[in-house]
Amino acid sequence: MPTGVHLRDARQQLFDAAERVLLRDGPNGLTSRAVTDEAGCAKGVLHRHFPDFDAFLTELVLDRAAQLETQARALHEAAGTGTVADNITGALTTLFGPVPVAIIPLITFRDELRARLRQARPGGGIAILAQVATAVSTYLADERELGRIAADADIESLTLSLVGGGHLLFADRHQDPPTTATVHKLVTTVLADVVQRRLL
Fold first, then answer.
1. Main-chain dihedrals φ then ψ at residue 147, nearest 5 degrees
2. Which of 82, 85, 144, 197 has the CB geometry, 3.0–4.6 Å to 150, for a possible disulfide?
3. Is 92 helix (H, G, I), strand (E, B) or coil?
4. Which residue blocks in the chain are alpha helix, DSSP H?
5. Among residues of the chain, what percentage have pLDDT more than 70?
6. What's residue 108's pLDDT?
7. 8 A C-beta contact, residue 13 and residue 39
């Protein structure tokens, strides 16, 4: 690799390269050499911007987790509109897009990365899943406040069921993502009791 390649925004280009490698080759294929080769730069470029590869991965995960905030805000703003099931179905499909789903096994795969994420932010050891859970939980609480689900709905349990079930549906990166109908069926099943009791 040439050492004289100038990267205008080296951090972002390295993050984008890592994302491409992760989507193509999975967590096992994500090495510092693979990232710099994908970015078309010398390996030293990565280490000029990050103390080590785990520091790079930590920043990558935090950057991608922060990008989920836009989708989380959209779900929050949907409270009181449409149907609860449709809103959550759309949110899970977006929040569990290819990149977030690819990052989750990376976090599971690397102990040091989880440790650094926990140091960086509360609940950071399961970044991405934590972002999705917060978005869903906040939305459900809003809908409960608006009276669109039962007043005694257990938000924490509903969130765990929706996020855990949603992740399982999207987790197999070698298959096509689940259809909207499949995700909607999960959501309506989980929410059936709290929606029905609200109507009584």
1. 80, 15
2. 197
3. helix
4. 10-25, 32-39, 43-49, 53-77, 84-95, 98-109, 111-120, 129-145, 155-170, 180-199
5. 92
6. 86
7. yes
